[in-house]
Amino acid sequence: MAVGEEMYGFVSGPLVLIAFVLFVLGLVIQIVRFFRMTRKKDPVAIPVSSPRQKDVDALRPPEEVRKKVRLRGTVLRMEPFMAVVTTIFHLMLILTPILLLAHNLLLEMSWGLRFPSLGEGTTDILTVAIMGFCVFFFLRRIFSAKVRAISTPYDFLLLFLVFLPFATGFVAYHQLFAYKIVLLAHVLAGELMLICIPFTKLVHMVFFFLYRFFLPGEYSFAPVGRRVWK
Amino acid sequence: MIKIKRKPFQEIVEAIQGYSNILNVGCGGCASVCLGGGQKEVKILNEELEEYFRQQGQDKRFVAYTVERACNMDYVQELDKIAPQKAAVLVMACAAGTQLIAERYPDTPVFPAVNTVAIGIDRDIGLYEERCRACGECVIGYTGGICPVTRCAKGLFNGPCGGANQGMCEVDSSIPCAWQEIFERLKRQNRLQDIMKIRPAMQWRNQTQRTVIQIGYEERYMQQE
Amino acid sequence: MSATQDTGIDTAEIKRVLSQHKAQIKFCLAVCAHCSMCAHSCFLYETRGQDPIYMPSHKMINSIGYLWKKRGKVTPRELRGIGDIVWKRCVLCMRCYCPLGVDIPFMIGLARRICREQGVYREYDRP
Known about the structure:
The complex is a heterotrimer. Chain A is mainly alpha-helical. Chain A folds into two domains: 1-41 and 152-230, no CATH class; 75-149. Chain A has helices spanning 2-12, 14-37, 53-59, 63-68, 75-78, 80-98, 101-111, 120-143, 145-150, 153-173, 179-196, 204-214; strands spanning 38-40, 227-229. Chain B folds into two domains: 2-118, Rossmann fold, CATH 3.40.50; 134-195, no CATH class. In chain B, the strands form two sheets. Chain B has a four-stranded parallel beta sheet, sandwiched between helices.
C-alpha cells in the first residue's frame, strides 16, 4: 500500500507541475516557432481612392435583406450543425476542467489561488456532455464517409486521449468503483493530455488562433497584424 | 487573371424580375480566384435574392451550380441536366463564360450577375489591380514592363501628357502617372533610348472580335487552300 | 497525363523543394485535425456527388502529405497518382475553407510544382 501512496503522491504532486511546465513550455515553443517562421507582411498601398460607404451600399442589397442574411457564406451557414457542435465542444473542453470546483479547491490548497467555480452538478452535466460529444465524434469518424476518408488510427487515439480524463474524472467523482485507482488514472490521464497538447495534433489549440488571427486569408478573423510565411 | 465584380444588387434584381425559376452559375476559374463568382458567392447571392423577393412577396426559386471553367464547353455541358428546365440563368463568370453559356442554351435568357472588370493581379485578399486590357498589341517590352494602355488614363504611347503632377495622374491624384514610372524604370535599367523613338498609335480601327490561336496550334486551324 | 517513365524521378530535387517550405508543410500537416469541415467549401466535392476524394484535406494529405511522409522518395506510379489528385481533382480556385486556417491551396500548389518539375502535368491538348 505504501508504494501506492508514494505513487499517488508523485502523480498528484511533482508530476502535475511537470505536466504544466511541459504544457506551457511546449506552447511557448510552438508560438515562438510560428513567429520565427513568419514575417510581417509588406504593407499594401491601395492604388485608387478608398471606396466610400455610400458607393459600397449602392452595390449591396437593401438593409432589410442584409439583416436576414448575415451569415453570408460562413461555415455557420454552410454547415450549421457541425459549426455549433464543435464550437460548444471546444468551449466546454477548455472551460469544464478550469471551472471545476474540485480542481480549484486543490489549487487553493496547494498554491492559495482562488478561481471561480461552477456548481458540481453543472460540471457533472458538462462532463457527461463532453463524453457524449466524444462518442459522437468517434461515430462520425466511423460512419461519415468524408471523415472516414481521412481518418487514421492516430485520430482515434487522440480522441481517446481527450475522452479519458473526462471519463475517469466522472467515474472518480461518482466513486463508482476502485476510487483510488480511478483517481490516479484520472490525474495521469489529465497530465498525459496536457503534455500531449503542444506536441500532437492537439496543438491546434494555439494554432487555431495563430492561423486565423495572424495569417491573411479569406477566412481570417483579423485584417490587422498580418504575417506571411518566410 | 480575369477580375470580375458583382453587379449592383438592384441591377441583378431588375434583370431577373420576370422569372421565377432561376439557375445561378458560378465558375471555379478566375471568377472564383478573385472572390467574385465562386461557389460561395453564388450561394450568397442566391440567399440574398431569395430573401429579397420573399420580402417583396414573390416566390422565386434559385439553384446554385459551379462549373470548373465557364469558358470551356466540356465543363459548361455539365449544366445540360439543369439549365434547360430553368426560366432564366444568372452567371457569375466572366463575360466570355457567360456568352458560352448563352450560346449553349439559346432558348434560355442568360444574365450576367457580375461585371468583367479587368485582367489584373492579386494585390491582397479581395484587392486587385488592372494590368492588361487585352489590346492585342503588347508594347510593354519598350515601356519597362509597364503598360501605357492600361495604366495611363489616356493610353498614351509617347511619354506623359502635361497633366502629371508630382508623379501623379491628373485624372485621380491617388493614381501614379504611368509614364513617370516608365521613365524611372527605364532610367534605372539604362534603357531610356527605348522611349526616344516615336511609336505609332495603336491600330484601334480594326475592332473586330479577336481570336487567340496559340503558337504551335496554328496548323489545326489553318484555312484549307 | 505525361510522366517520366524513362528518366525516373529526381528525389533530391523533390526533397530540396520540400525543405524550402519545410516549416509551412510541417505546421499545416501537424494542425490538420482531419475534421472534414473543408469538404463543402470545394465546389468539385459538391458537384461530383460529394465524393470524399474531392475533399480539400483529402487532396492535401494524399499529395503534399504523402510526398512529405516519403521524403520525396516516390515511384513514378505514385507521382502520377499525386498528379491526378492535384491536376484533375483540384482546379486551384483557392477557396478551401479550413477552420484551423491551413492554407490548403498553397499546399496543392506546391505539390503541383513538384509534379510539374518531375514531368507530371496536365496536357490540355490531349483528351
